[in-house]
Amino acid sequence: MAHADPFSTSTMLNASHHLRFAAAREPISEGYPAVAPPHPRGFSVKFPPPGFTPSPSPLTNSFFTALTPKMDVLHDLKVRPKRASNDGVIADIRFRLLLDDRKKQERLQTQQKLLGITDDVDTLFAATILRRFLHIITDKYASYVARRGIAVFNKKKKEAIYERILHYALYIARDKHGCLALNDIITDADDLYYKNKLFDVIAHKAILLSNDAYGNFVIQQVLKLNDLRCKNNIVASLRGHFVDLSIQRYGSYIVNLLLETEESMVVVVEELLEGDMLMRLTRNVYGNFVVCKALRVTQKEMVRTDLYWGLVHKLKPFHNPLRRSRGSNSWTQFNPKSFKNAD
């Protein structure tokens, strides 16, 4: 009997019944694949072998533990909302949070003392800080570890942290705890290159930060450092917005601060004198104090008498109503003779 052709159609159909196909969820091969499939965008991706679990060092575990909130307190707030309305339970939760904050602060203070001793320890902490940078730099206590690291790390590690600060500067500046950390970093920065880079980022976004509840404190801190180049850049960014800033709570802080130095004061007052917006400012709870501050500094300095008398001329028709208006007590400090003597 002749042998069947192994490549004939009938032979292959008969053989197909004996083939075993893998199920959809069954792994084709056990263990780590020999060649990983290419990433859709061309990046190489490495998959850890099955059962792989990282084993961080005790120092890293301690650092993460210090950053982790107490879940039992959060459980009390979520699971027992009715009981949480009781004054006794609320007081208990607040006390436990306070104790947790103290323990957390003590742990982080201990870890700060480890920085700068050996390069191996510094490398470990630098890697941890960079890996969870935003979480650490915006934490009330953990940010002190990052700031201590900037002070004692070698140049390479410092630059890595400074680069991360530059990248997230706006986010940090608008955070409740981050703005305080950023202010200290800017003040204590010993690297002139990165300090100027931070100044540039802040000055470029001065309008955004000036109107922010926390960002305005960063602008104030930078202005108080009296860096002429940075101050000029901030004034240039805010030019044309001084009236709008003056009627906002946080923006008015910045305008009042700019009125305290001669160079920026001239720019601000000249803009306030433009058009008919001055009366609008006097009727605003925040703008009222800006106008009074402008009158006070121009009257005191008398470097540019035209600015003072320009304000007096514009305000003269409304002086008496302003002195009688509610919430305008600041106007009582000005001598009425100044307005009477105005041409």
TrEMBL record:
Gene3D superfamilies in alphabetical order: Leucine-rich Repeat Variant
Compartments where located:
Cytoplasm
Is Nucleotide-binding among this UniProt entry's keywords?
Answer: no
The protein's GO terms of the molecular function aspect are: mRNA binding
UniProt repeat feature Pumilio, residue ranges: 128-163, 200-236, 237-274
Organism this protein belongs to: Arabidopsis lyrata subsp. lyrata (Lyre-leaved rock-cress)
Protein name (database record): PUM-HD domain-containing protein
State the source organism's domain of life.
Eukaryota
- Offer one Pfam family short name for this entry: PUF
Cross-referenced PANTHER family: PUMILIO HOMOLOG 18-RELATED, RNA BINDING PROTEIN PUMILIO-RELATED
According to its record, what are the GO cellular component terms? Answer: cytoplasm
Q: Does the keyword Iron-sulfur apply?
A: no
Ordered alphabetically, the record's keywords are: Cytoplasm, Repeat, RNA-binding, Translation regulation
GO BP annotations, alphabetical order: regulation of translation
The major lineage groups are: Eukaryota, Viridiplantae, Streptophyta, Embryophyta, Tracheophyta
Q: Which residue intervals define the domain PUM-HD in the entry?
A: 8-338
Per the record, the major location class is cytoplasm
